[in-house]
Design brief:
The complex is a heterotrimer of chains A (about 120), B (about 180) and C (about 650).
Chain A: E1 10-13, H1 14-34, H2 38-67, H3 76-107
Helix pairs in contact in A: 1-2, 2-3
Chain B: H1 3-24, H2 28-48, H3 52-76, H4 89-111, E1 117-120, H5 128-137, H6 140-161, H7 168-183
Helix pairs in contact in B: 1-2, 2-3
Chain C: H1 2-21, H2 28-51, H3 53-56, E1 73-82, E2 85-92, H4 95-118, H5 124-146, H6 150-168, H7 175-206, H8 211-214, H9 217-221, H10 225-242, H11 251-254, H12 260-269, H13 272-281, H14 283-287, H15 290-311, H16 317-337, H17 341-368, H18 386-400, H19 406-421, H20 423-448, H21 456-461, H22 467-482, H23 498-503, H24 517-542, H25 552-558, H26 563-609, H27 617-638
Antiparallel strand pairs in C: 1-2
Helix pairs in contact in C: 1-2, 1-5, 2-4, 2-5, 4-5, 4-12, 4-17, 4-22, 5-6, 6-7, 7-10, 10-13, 10-15, 12-17, 13-16, 13-17, 15-16, 15-20, 16-17, 16-19, 16-20, 17-18, 17-19, 17-22, 18-20, 18-22, 19-20, 19-24, 20-24
Classes of the chains: A mainly alpha (about 120), B mainly alpha (about 180), C mainly alpha (about 650).
């Protein structure tokens, strides 16, 4: 079995992971808010998803540690969630990019300010 | 401070920096590349947390497949130039301030939480063996449904991306062609 | 019997509906038949009810003096049912209401018949409207009289006020007439407020408004003395409005704006007698409040004298009669104030006869001289209008109190009770009697004696009225002569005072030391002498008409003591000014400003908010994040 090279090397306060995730998430949000390119916005959304994924994994390990030997499988659900999030993200990206391509084909632009059809 | 802590901080700083570059780069291609860097650092975090399966999947799916798809699209549409129209300065500032205040609020809110440890390096739940076992026993039904999701996403992408033959614009173009032929 | 009684008010109401709704379709003849027929029907049923009074309540004579006292209340359904308060729709047919029913429907019927001729020149639809109002008037008055509780009475009370408004303003194209109608309505409204407050007071104390609950010794025991005085004063305020007493009498002379038969109806048979009926009905309550009785007596006496003085110098034939009505009503209140309820009711009855006669007679005169109402332009009508003249003369004699006409007996009864209680008020009454005789005969002589002073055209046109007008006059004249005989005092005939004994179950005989027969004779003689002297003075002065001398006193009299001007100065004008002020500053400035401001604010803010709906997804996301931040702040920091 493959062993981690950092095996048994220590612990980390969960707070740092939380702050890291929040910072990444907020950066995604700022990207969404400040950019006009649809593809960049889409990428920022992926960034936000990843921030959440990271936090989930960190919590899963925290949970595992708290459960101890009594439940060796504790926390595995969170990692499976991350897996499913990746699945969904992949599907989402394929559809989303198809939409952006369509958009570009019709308007010759990926500027979201063009998309003000919601007004009507 | 052990090696893991050093690694954690290093990875964190790199990931934050690259994320910052993602949203500030003028050129979309650079943004994609910086995002790939970010994903690699996140995968590094996964390895640090001994979530080996997810680390690998993250690199394969995100950094590999998805980002390549992004890159493809950008290059196909020839968007690599710095042609993106900029938002107005005030709107940008408002977005940044809003995002910053969200960060501030969340950090301030979570600062006082109970301090709990997460283990680094140890723990076997992130290994393929354990996850595979759980995935194919307890979560086998969602797993199969995920394949249906992929299928429908595929079909959806094809349907959306297909060029519409009967679109009005297309008809106009055809008419113009015909007229030109007649004139000739 | 129960349903038959219900028909009494229902028939005029039916007539109102038919005439009112079909006024454009029906011919005048048909309208007249419906209008008169329904009232005649009510009259006949009223006679039947009057004759079978005992049977209505289930009471009957069992051999000799033994008698089952019936319950005169006829319950139809519960009209208002809130919590413990139950107000039934019920009629009370007893001696008092039966008597009033006869007066209202009988005199009312004659006035209806008279109207068919008097109003003949109106267009069909206005003719129909007139009869519809008239029928509604009778209906309301019947409701007022028949109701077995104060609420039903109040419905009729309000209905009468409404109909008087409609009828006074019948010629609504004349702005002065509509103003007179408005005045009548508002004046009545002031009184109605008092009535309503009294009813609420009664409800709060007793929890019921039925006469059978309130007007009993048991009911009376639940009021404190203060309550009784308050309630009776408020009720009297209502009566002053409806029956035109000081301070609310000024509407009645102005009510002459309506067609003459309407004046007859208002003054004689209905409306103004409502106040007297109400007080007579509540006599137990009033007897328990001596303070109120004193107030009533003083106001009644003052009204009688004041109106009589004004009537002396009026030149409009109808105005004179109007003030005489006010004066006679003052008499009735004087009697009520003395506790002589029977005398008041008696005077209502005789007054109904001779005042209806006088009004209809004046209508006949006006009809003859082509609508002229000013007596200075009449004169010498005796030869041309013999029937009208004779009946009018009978009316004048009756109102002046010359024996043995009806007015003599009723007026005498009032003066007698006044003499028993208060000599000052008796003197006022006697003076008023003299004044009454004077101004009535002044009117008679100026109108009928001498030579005609109108235009040539009018002189040609003078003619005696048609039978539809003269027959009611003759009938009323006969009633004016004989109407008083039902209550001939004991001093004339043994077994007289039939009315008093008839009303005894409802109105207990007033206490107090009855005066000796000799005193009674002297009093009667004195009244008659005073009246005769007044008539002779009037004859000597107005046998041949000449311009009346102008002095400051006569000027004041002609201008009705400037009471209207006083009211205008003290109440109406400040109120108008206040209203204008409120309209300008409170209404326009504050309320309108507020309402418009809210509208403008919404308009403005929505105009601004519209920019939020830009269609730009980016803006939406920005707003979403901002609200997220706000929610987090709210959740984590502000919700302690």
């Amino acid at each position: 079995m493959f062993q981690s090279p950092f095996r048994g090397l220590g612990f980390m306060d969960i707070k740092y992971y939380i702050f890291l995730s929040v910072a990444l998430f907020v950066m995604g949000i700022i990207g969404v808010l400040t950019r006009r390119n649809a593809i960049i916005i889409f990428m920022c959304i992926e960034l936000m998803l990843n921030a959440v994924n990271l936090l989930l994994v960190a919590f899963s390990k925290m949970h595992h540690l708290a459960a101890g030997v009594a439940n060796p499988n504790a926390g595995s659900e969170a990692q499976l969630f991350v897996f499913f999030i990746m699945v969904v993200a992949a599907a989402e990206v394929s559809v989303g990019l198809a939409i952006i391509v369509m958009l570009f084909r019709n308007t010759h632009s990926v500027d979201v300010n063009f998309l003000n059809r919601l007004k009507h | 401070m052990g090696i893991t802590q050093i690694l954690f901080w290093a990875l964190s700083i790199i990931s934050l920096f690259s994320a910052l570059m993602v949203i500030t780069s003028k050129n979309p291609v650079f943004s994609v590349l910086w995002l790939i860097v970010t994903f690699f650092t996140i995968s590094g975090h996964y390895i640090l947390l001994n979530a080996q399966f997810l680390a690998v999947v993250n690199i394969i799916v995100y950094a590999g497949a998805i980002m390549v798809l992004f890159l493809f699209v950008i290059m196909l549409m020839n968007l690599s130039k710095d042609t993106e129209p900029q938002k107005s300065k005030w709107l940008k500032l408002a977005g940044a301030v809003t995002g910053g205040s969200l960060l501030l609020v969340l950090v301030a809110a979570l600062r006082g939480t109970e301090s709990r440890m997460t283990e680094l390096g140890t723990g076997e739940i992130g290994l393929i063996q354990n996850l595979g076992h759980v995935l194919f026993t307890e979560y086998v039904v969602p797993f199969e449904i995920a394949s249906i999701l992929f299928l429908s996403a595929m079909i959806g992408a094809v349907v959306i991306g297909k060029r519409e033959v009967h679109s009005p614009v297309h008809k106009e173009v055809e008419k113009l062609d015909e007229m030109q032929e007649v004139m000739h | 019997m129960k349903n038959l009684i219900l028909l009494i008010p229902l028939l005029p109401f039916l007539g109102f509906l038919i005439n009112g709704l079909l006024r454009k379709q029906l011919s005048k003849g048909l309208i007249g038949i419906v209008g008169c027929g329904t009232v005649l029907g009510s009259f006949l049923i009223s006679i039947y009810a009057f004759l079978n009074l005992d049977a209505i309540g289930g009471g009957r004579q069992i051999s000799g003096s033994a008698k089952i006292i019936g319950n005169p209340v006829i319950h139809y359904f519960d009209f208002i049912n809130v919590g413990t308060l139950k107000i039934p729709f019920a009629f009370q047919i007893d001696q008092l209401s039966a008597l009033f029913l006869l007066i209202i429907t009988g005199v009312g019927f004659l006035i209806h018949v008279y109207s068919t001729a008097y109003m003949h020149e109106e267009k069909e639809e206005h003719f129909g409207r007139y009869f519809a109002y008239l029928n509604l008037f009778v209906f309301s008055m019947l409701l007022l009289v028949m109701g077995a509780n104060y609420i039903i009475m109040f419905i009729g009370w309000e209905g009468v006020g409404l109909c008087s408004y409609l009828l006074i303003g019948y010629w609504f194209k004349n702005i002065d007439y509509t103003k007179a109608a408005k005045k009548a309505f508002v004046m009545n409204r002031i009184g109605d407020l008092g009535f309503l407050l009294a009813v609420f007071w009664i409800i709060s104390k007793i929890g019921s408004v039925n006469y059978s609950d309130v007007l009993t010794t048991a009911g009376l025991a639940r009021f404190s003395t203060g309550d009784i005085v308050g309630i009776t004063l408020l009720l009297f305020l209502g009566a002053t409005g409806k029956s035109a007493q000081i301070p609310l009498y000024t509407w009645l002379p102005d009510a002459m704006a309506g067609p003459t038969p309407v004046s007859a109806l208002i003054h004689a048979a209905t409306m103004v007698t409502a106040g007297i009926y109400m007080i007579a009905r509540s006599n137990i309550l009033f007897t328990a409040a001596p303070l109120t009785l004193n107030v009533i007596a003083i106001i009644g006496g003052a009204t009688a004298l004041l109106a009589a003085t004004i009537a002396m110098r009026q030149n409009d034939i109808k105005k004179v009669l109007a003030y005489s009505t006010v004066s006679q009503l003052g008499y009735m209140f004087l009697a009520l104030g003395m506790g002589a309820y029977t005398a008041a009711v008696f005077h209502v009855m005789t007054h109904a006869f001779f005042k209806a006669l006088l009004f209809l007679g004046s209508g006949s005169v006006i009809h003859a001289v082509s609508g002229q109402q000013d007596i200075r332009f009449m004169g010498g009508l005796r030869k041309k209008l013999p029937t009208t003249y004779i009946t009018f003369l009978i009316g004048c004699l009756a109102i002046a109190g010359i024996a043995p006409l009806s007015g003599f007996f009723s007026k005498d009864a009032i003066l007698l009770s006044a003499f028993e209680h208060n000599k000052v008020l008796w003197a006022v009454g006697l003076l008023t009697a003299g004044l009454t005789a004077f101004y009535m005969f002044r009117l008679l002589f100026i109108t009928f004696s001498g030579t005609f002073r109108g235009t040539e055209e009018q002189r040609h046109h003078i003619h005696e009225s048609p039978a539809a007008m003269t027959v009611p006059l003759i009938i009323l004249a006969l009633l004016s002569i004989a109407g008083g005989w039902i209550n001939i005092p004991e001093v004339f005939i043994h077994g007289g005072e039939r009315l008093t004994s008839f009303l005894k179950p409802l109105i207990p005989a007033s206490e107090g030391s009855p005066v000796a027969h000799s005193t009674e004779w002297i009093l009667m003689g004195l009244t008659t002498v005073v009246s005769l002297v007044a008539i002779i003075i009037a004859w000597s002065r107005y046998k041949v008409y000449k311009e009346e001398r102008e002095t400051s006193l006569t000027k004041a009299l002609e201008n009705k003591w400037y009471v209207d001007e006083l009211y205008n100065g003290i109440i109406v004008n400040p109120l108008n000014k206040f209203g204008a002020f409120v309209a300008r500053f409170v209404e326009k400035g504050t309320i309108d400003g507020l309402v418009n401001g809210v509208g403008r604010l919404v308009n403005y803010s929505s105009r601004q908010m519209r920019w939020l709906q830009s269609g730009q997804v980016g803006n939406y996301v920005l707003l979403m994040v901002v609200s997220m931040v706000l929610f987090f702040v709210l959740q984590f920091f502000l919700r302690k």
